[in-house]
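chain below, 230 aa
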Amino acid sequence: MRLSYEEAVERLKNARAYSTGSKCLDSLLNNGLKQFLVYHIFGASGTGKTQLAIQASVITASRGESVAYIDTEGKFRPERALEIATARGITDSFLPRIQYFRAETFQSQKDAVERIANEERFKDVRLVVIDTVTNNLTLEYPGSENMFQRQSNLSIFLQFVCRDAYISGRTYLLTNRVAVAEKEVHIGGRILEYMVSRNIRLERRGSEIFVTDVESGAGCNTRISKAGLI
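prediction:
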């Protein structure tokens, strides 16, 4: 695909937006997840990353769009998706519009994204969720001695993801864990942070979740309920 600068700007200006289902997060993202962009949502265990991934899938699918959910940890639960839908008053039969991939290896994770990008049956997929994007890499290339190979594979993978998002007009939502050393940092380092469109941190503060846009520093409070992150 070849576009002039003006054509590229106009394309992004007219991009669709998909609600995350969280008023707090939608506000930080200027009305939700934008078409053509890649979002990186990271935080410690229990901060609502998978909740957010499921609810964004439910809401997008309930509005008639096709969703691909790549699950690297086996955390997707159809019953939780139905609970979120019920709590939000969604009566539409949305589950058939969520294409589910269980990716237990990094190769199967790559294969899933390549199938979505290249196979005719997935051409209408608008939202692609990868929960958790770095899980397989950290299992297959553990420790500092494998850092170069781990980061190289991540870089190549993200290049493909970003290319598909832009060319195919999809939105990618990547969830990620954090590691704790002297301070809490997301797994994947600068490569992941620089290659995506937006970086969003989730932090638990008592009974609430504080959401921060890393680049701007803007933030807001939300909480986890039967409806997910609200």
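Helices lie at 5-13, 23-28, 49-62, 78-87, 106-118, 135-140, 147-168, 189-195. Residues 102 and 140 are 16 Å apart (CA to CA).
thats it, cya
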